[in-house]
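fold-stage: in
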Amino acid sequence: MKLQFLDIAIICTYLIGMLMLGWFMRKKARQSKENYLMGGKKLPWYMLGLSDASDMFDISGTMWMVALCFVYGVKSLWIPWLWPVFNQVFNMMFLSKWLRRSNANTGAEWLGTRFGLTGKGVQASHTVVVAFALIGCLGFLAYGFVGLGKFVEIFVPWDVVKGYVPFDVAPQYVAHFYGIVFTLFAVFYSVLGGLHSIVIGDVIKYIIMTIGAIAIAVIAMQHLHGKTLNVPRGWDNPFFGWHLDMNWRGIVDDAMKKIDGDGYGMFGIFFMMMLFKGVFASLAGPAPNYDMQKILSTKSPKEASKMTGFVSLILLPIRYSMIIGLTVLGLLYYNQLNLKDATGNVDFEKILPATINQFLPVGILGLVLTGLFGAFVGTFSGTLNAAQAYFVNDVYLKYINPTATNKKVITANYLSGLIIVAVGIVLGFLAKDVNSILQWIVSGLYGGYIAANVFKWYWWRFNAHGFFWGMFAGVGGALIFSRFFEGIEFLYYFPLLFLISIAGCLIGTFTAPATDVTVLKKFYSTVKPWGFWQPIHQLVVADDPAFLPNKRFKLDMFNVVLGIIAQCCLTVLPMYIVLWMKLPLLITVIILLIIIVVLKKTWWNKLED
């Protein structure tokens, strides 16, 4: 191990500090259900924004992005559109404030504001969204669990540990063993302290990660000075044609195997499919995970918009400083790195831990490792908090014990947290790797989520039956597809999955009566969405002639386009700095400054509750 006493001391201090934080915040968390799950809806937007950004700065995702950056270069900025990362821009411009205006505590509770509280369709829609949320959260817990284990395995080889462990562990499960050990720290402080401890812990982690990321970028620039990267033509160019045309043969032959395995060779078609899916996924609004919980936890709709806008601004430049820094080190010293997994195949996801272990000095290594361990803890705890919210709010209090005392609610939070973690760990053992889980979640499971959640915002006639059958058809189709397709195949079959889900939405909607007009009028007048709401608008105006509809569609779409361009600029900015590509850097800065000035007038100055 390269870890020195100072590095180990920094890591241990952080882990102990997180345990103490959870212990100290437990009394505040126990005051009420809303305090435990939502921070009492009193936390400032910038704190929640830092926490949300910190949760997205996870080990598994960063390992995946470093692997992508190594193989695809600057073009790798597009691949996270699979998520899609630009959904934050849609949230920032209009969806976050629409969601927050509901004043709900979970996505399932929000359905009551849209479809009402009674009826078979309402009951069914509530059940399917809770099931979706819990499945999604469990998937993310497994995703983080696997990534953490792979990360720790580099720094603490099993040969060093096995003499102190009273049982044997098969090589393929060493990463899972480490995942369990560090998961226990996350469980303790998040289950005890609730959202207050999670947010404070995330802010501390973000500060540590910022220091570490900048240090990595500087170290990479020092190593690159006077040298040239041995990469294929077009590696440093973000633009592309129909084909990827990136030839690694004779440079790193295994990179060609990865490109073939990923299926990104026809990059133009891949990009169009990502954009098609991404726009609809973004219009559907936040998925029921920690991101939605942070939005619902803000003080007001205006602060919800500010929070989601803040996330991209503080996340992307720092995260990509680390990504490009580690990529440069990986490229310069590729032959010195041991990237083979237990089966003897090259695993590019090991570039992150391998370069950190080999090239960071004492102290900086401890800080970066602390930040990355904290990244796991933060993502894990945020996801766990969201899962607990759905279980306690939408299962326990709705079906099991509606009159539960505050003490029983907190106990239910504790028990549900432990059960959810246990199931997440089991799923982690069943997962092949980080990328396989990620592809299943974003391309399969979330693909089935989209249609029903687009209709719910923009079409007045869409009802709870339509929501249930759309979700059931979409998610059910995704689960069936997962038996036959994997990786990028999910994306190419998305249009078929989307059509199946739309069919479920329309059949369910037109075989049941419309939602109660009173519910629709209250939703429309409170949330103020744009879209196909004219019949309800006329009824609202008849009751209140002074009511002003939302006529911001064109402005919102204009701001979305600017926001996506700005998000791309924030992504490539640190890449151009570390690679010291002066002209592209200058152009990027100018574009970014122009967009900031325009959005100040068209978005920030026009924010309202």
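fold-stage: in (second)
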Amino acid sequence: MSRSSRHISHRIRTAATATALAAALLAAAVPADAATPAAAPKAAQNLAVDLAAPQGPVLRGANGSLYGLSDDGVPTDAALAPLKLTTVTQKPEGGAQHPNGDAVTVSKSFFRNGGGDVLVMMQDIYAKWPYEDLGIEDYLTKVDKVVRDVADAPHSEHFVYVPFNEPDQIWYNLGVADQATYEKNRDRFFRDWKTVHDRIRAIDPDARIAGPNESSYHSRLMGDFLTWAKKENVLPQVTTWHELGPDSLRDFQGHYDDYRALEKRAGITPRPINIDEYANRRDLSVPGQLVQWVSMFERNKVYADQAYWDAAGNLSGSVAQSNIPNGAWWFFRWYATMTGRTVKVTPPTANAVDTLQGLASYDTAKRQAQVLLGGAAGDANVTVGHVDPKVFGRQVTAAVSEAAWSGYEGAHAAPRTLARMKLRVGPDGSVTVPLKAMERMSAYRIVLTPAGRGTPQPAQVPWHAAYEAEDAAITAGKVYTQGTVSNANGYAASGTQDVGSLDQDTSKVAFTVDVPRAGAYDLSVLYGNQSGGPATQRLTVDGGAARTVTYPSTENWTYRGLRNTTVRLSAGRHEIALAHGTAEVTLDRIDLTAATKPSTAYEATLADTTGSPSYDYGSATGTGTGVLVLDGGDGGDGAVFDVYAPREGYYTLTPRATGGPLELTAHGATTTTSQRLYLTAGNNRVTAAPAGAAPVRLRSLDVTGAGGDTAGVRGYEAESGALSGAAKPESGAHASGGRYVGWLGNGASNTATLTVQAPAAGRYLMAVRYANNERRDNGHAYNTDIVSRGADITVGQGKPRRVMFKNTWGWDDYWTLAVPVDLAKGANTVTFANPGAYAPNLDRIDLAPVIG
């Protein structure tokens, strides 16, 4: 296939030092594209934010997900809580449509982590897709069970029944053009709606019901439905339909306006709207695409759930494994931090596909304005108008950061701050923040706060370059096009192309790179691996000695993962080649970043909070966004940080604080002295709070380390434990020590018990290394029905705790899940069991005190 003419040979982003504010924002804040463009650069686009045009309280309604949760604990609590989910849509308890995602089961973790409403897709009780039509009487017997399960569940008031799914297509064929046929089918649907509606209410009188839940918006059906449902007193409490095509980015506003007009015409009180399926595969996991969808939903104050195109349990592609943020997760984390009211945003082009869009919030109590934007490449000027001097003063600090696309299964560290600068408010009350060389797949956040005294610490942005595989020298491989508007349900690819069919012994992709100075560089490879197990390539630099890069499995060859390694390069031009090793790997892009000491400053004024802390922007020094003032005593003031760790290990956490003593809490352990804490791979929720009555002024929580500090960690191979019943050691090429324990569970006697040593009593993290590739084919062409396996973990004579272990995509692919445990000093037993089903294959455990 031909390559897109708009590709350039490589994209380089560099950081430069500048003293003038404007030059720093243009050159250092958002690094420029140093490659020679194929055509004259386009003029910067303009996006305007009006702080004096409120649109209502921040809803955060568009952060939901269809089958985003697969089990209680998948994703983890640490991945769920920061996103403040407003809705999820799941199947009925015991539904046959998919092997997991049962609404009542997953509601435990959903509500435990502050979730809003659970929509129950009632027809997912059926096994086939489209649903088998066995008649309304058959369906009613199933409705009875679904409603009783929900009505008896804790927090039943937060469940919403969705009686029909896509009735315009399934069972009723309501999209036909012939009016007579349409009316016949419509009337059948209306009769069944009333029958099911009344049956639900008979069992659960306080039920909230959602519908009609069309596959796309149909004004004819919606108008007829509202008029009839009002007359029959069977109106839904929540109106739902789906927006699943690229054209929805253009058409949704018209759909919304039409619906509200139909409501008004029918004399119906406006009701909440939930677009309970939205976006295509090419959108999911991509921050720059998601911001376009979220901006239009938030602007109209509707709820929305991302579609379920692939596997359950990863928030529709926003969480890697069970606990690891990708770029989309960080975008939704930003969305969750928006407080106050949203304000009007005027994009360069409204209601258009794949264009620069944004949303903005304004919180006068926090004295913060936030802008999230993305969806287009190139330059943009973001003008924030009506900057109130009573709130901000005459100068503001602008902090700019980026959430890049890291693939569906690619880890993304905490977004790097690209710029932090003081800006003077213009005579017209506006501030303009220029962004240079934006990436189309990235989302960006701008935070405005009062400037305060002093000079903010400049952002440190290491040199970085990205190289597309399709533009490299390709031997025995093919270029494929992915995830375009015309193929919207193709998976996303950087630049919409990748290189596949690298299945020959001679297959190779050679990248020509150019680096500014000698040193170590982090090399990140966006790849896909559907070989069924770990696959390898041979990495060479300038034709030198080859070393092996191992790629874990991904869902399929276009479902992107991210593999990181390090290369040492001299200044100048080099060839980095990735050649066929074992099995086939698809290559999308490589990134080179100058290696730096791992260090991240998490700003306290942007953290979640408990209690009622105050905000002080008197000083701009340091991070430049001010100080969070935490009162001591019984007020409960605290700052909750989401700390990213690339791997398990010890990290140094240093609060930048003055005033009274401060305590840190992570994974259930609290310390007022030690700053060396054991963190799990992915997200870690860390709370900082006063340790006494004296207030604390907290500027940031600085985290250093890359997980290499493992002093005090004790490892135990699973096969070294006491095995009973059918549990036995098996050989595994990719298992630690070459062996793992299989056949655990599926009977009460099939257990593994390890005796571990604790130097002191207290809270430990137990990192469990496991593999699981159980699947069930439910007959769906586009859903991969993976199954999580559970293990009942018992410490000593304590009560068993059920822990769910997500599918790892392959039996030879091992992931790590951290489980907090309390140990007594000395010897402790840890038992893994599951009397009712198989547990995952167990490779090893590592135990470490949380406080090092």
